Amino acid sequence: MTPVRAHDAVRDLLGLLAAGASGEQLAQVAVAARASGMPADELATVDNAAEHALKVRQTLAAHRRREAELTALFDTASDLARLRDTDAVLRSIVRRARTLLRVNVSYLTLNDEHAGRTYMRVTDGSASALFQQVTLGMGEGLGGLVAQTARPYATRDYFADARFRHTTPIDSSVHDEGLAAILGVPLAVGGKVIGVLFAADRSARDFSPDEVALLSSLANHAAIAIENAGLLDETRLALADLNVANATISSHNEAMRRAEEAHDRLTDLILRGGDLPEVAAAVADVLHGGIAVFDATGTELARVGNSHASATEDAVIRARGSGRAVSTPDGWVCAVQAGQELLGSLVLTDRPDLSDADRRLFERAGVVTALLLMLRRSVAQAEDEVRGELLTDLLTAPDRNPAALMARGQRLGVDLGEEYAVLVVTAEQVSRRRLLTAAGRFAVLVGVHADQVVLLARSEDPSGLAARIAESLSSTMDSPVTVGAAGPVCGVEGLVAAHAEAVRCVRSLLALGRTGSGGTMSDLGFVGLLLGEADLEAYVHSTLGPVLEYDDRRGTELLRTLEAYFTAGANLTRAKELLHVHVNTVVQRLERIGSLLGADWQTPQRALEIQLALRLFRLTSA
After folding, report:
1. Residue 464 CA to chain centroid, in angstroms?
2. Which residues lie in coiled coils (predicted)?
3. Which of 270, 266, 258, 289 shows the shortest CA–CA distance to 365?
């Protein structure tokens, strides 16, 4: 073998260094020189050169490692400068810690002081679900020691280290991950430890001071990221609060502007003499919904929109009790009241959700509606007084100046030359003023005369009208209201006479115990004939009309059979002898009569009226 010269070996070492050879390759040059039989002095030179080459290689490796660490730190700082997602920055730090320290697993935990626990925030390289979800108490495990002392701690073999408190949850998760060597450094913000950054290997190893310093630098960056994230969150919350406050102020200003416009618009309507439909239209336009106005009895006064919703009694009671508009399945209801007196209600539809500002607008519309109803009531009361005076003069002194009475009626829109039904309304438990107001909607002229409410109404059926008014007012007043009627008649004299008959009728109804009903003298049967100046033919027709019409139409003898039946004292045998027919024929005719006059025609009271009508029929026919 040709001996290797010292300068050749040194040249080879320099070449290997330049090529980035490993330490084993550098050492192999000295081995080869010794094996070649190189002289001792040259061999010492080669050994010395190889030793220096190894040192140079280590220095270069350290420089490269330091360069990589600095690059990672600069990249982390750059990430922090562009911080948008805190979790992304923390994941990047943990990943770099694992790469730079050449460990199997890296992870980061954060403290929750309120819960007194520490939880896993980010992991990299972990394969155990138990480890990734572990939660530990404050002061437990290696991380607890780091948090308590605010100093880095490293262990070569976790399970053999007795410097920290082992717990079953932590040991189980570390064992499940298969970790042995663990390094933990504190994450501190303002001198307060908020968490720990870890680097761990699945085999036993020692962590160098450079590795501890590098992980500490990364932990400082992580702490900065967390602090910046907190500041950003606070800034976002403050900005959100400012935006909410600005929106609230803008909304409040808009609500005040709308309220002012609505107030001016409604006030202008009232000052110009606007009526309920105009007010309803204005409110509907302001609130962008349908509006319906009702009086205290639930009668509709005005409506804007296509909805048919109405104010239920329960909703009005709730609105009246709370003083606020209340929500219903159909919309919103607001009570219209003056003090404690209920004047009516407002219903808003097509607005299932109502803001506080719009709700106050709706309630203000209720106040305006109450004012308008009070004005209408004042005007109506003034008109009622004038109309009442006309009615009083008409019934008290009709002969004094009939022409003047006719002229006064014309000015009030009442032509006394037309036909009217005259009705007298009375109720024991109701004030005359209240009764007058409620009954006014049925009449063209209403007033109080002789302590009774008197109405003039256009009707061809006074009896039916009296019954309807009695039923309606009894329900409204919660007290029996009795109504007597007469007519229809025309002219001053006819109205005076009809009033007298209506008075007798209402007195007769009360005397007969028919309080709370309504009708005319003809409805009282023979009592009406005795007490009034009734039309006899009308009485006969109202009592026997169906039988008379049947005989005329069919040519039968039901009326004659009826007379024979009563003449025979309701004895069928005697009746058939008077009629000269078979008894079965009498029975069949009486059944037909029962179907025409009603099943109760043989009761004492009906039988008496039928016999009286039969007698009167013969008299009037003669």
Report:
1. 45
2. 242-269
3. 266
CATH superfamily membership of 274-379: GAF domain (3.30.450.40)
Helices (H) and strands (E) in the chain, counts: 21, 16
Give the pairing of strands 452-457 and 420-426: antiparallel
Mean pLDDT score, 96-120: 86
Give the pLDDT score at 615. 74
Name, in order, each residue with C-beta under 8 angstroms of 104's C-beta and a sequence gap of 6 or more. 98, 125, 179, 200, 201, 202
- For residue 282, give the nearest of 410, 200, 368, 193 by alpha carbon: 368
DSSP string, 430-492: S-HHHHHHHHGGG-SEEEEETTEEEEEE--S-HHHHHHHHHHHHHHHHTS--EEEEEEEE-HH
Task: Determine the average pLDDT of the residues in 294-322.
Answer: 75
317 and 347 Cβ atoms separated by less than 8 Å = no
Q: Within 10 A of 475 (CB to CB), how many other CB atoms are there?
A: 11
For the record, the structure tokens of 398 come out as 């009709």
| Residue 74 or 45, more confident | 45
Class of domain 86-235: alpha beta
- Could you state, in order of their start, the residue ranges of all structural domains in the chain? 6-67, 86-235, 274-379, 399-531, 536-621
Q: Count the alpha carbons within 13 Å of 444 in the hemisphere toward its beta carbon.
A: 17
List strand residue ranges (DSSP E) for 161-317, in order.
181-189, 192-201, 290-295, 300-304
Highest mean pLDDT of the ranges 282-296, 415-429, 471-485:
471-485
Rounded to whole angstroms, how far apart are CA atoms 416 and 495? 9
Per-residue pLDDT tens for 517-535?
888 877 776 655 555 555 6
Question: How many Å apart are CA 622 and CA 619, to the nearest integer?
Answer: 5
Count of C-beta atoms within a 10 Å radius of residue 52: 14
Is the full-model pTM beyond 0.90?
Answer: no
Instruction: Determine the topology of domain 399-531 in CATH.
Output: Alpha-Beta Plaits (3.30.70)
Is the pLDDT higher at 313 or at 387? 313
Judging by DSSP bridges, how do beta strands 482-489 and 518-519 pair with one another?
parallel
State whether residue 390 is helix, strand or coil.
helix
DSSP state for residue 563 in the 8-state scheme: H
Phi, psi of 123 (to 5 degrees): -135, 155
Residue pair 172/130 in contact (Cβ under 8 Å)? The answer is yes
**In the predicted model, is pLDDT for residue 213 greater than 70?**
yes
Question: How many Å apart are CA 421 and CA 495, to the nearest integer?
Answer: 8
- Which three-class secondary structure string do you get for 91-117? HHHHHHHHHHCCCCEEEEEEEECCCCE
CA 418 to chain centre: 54
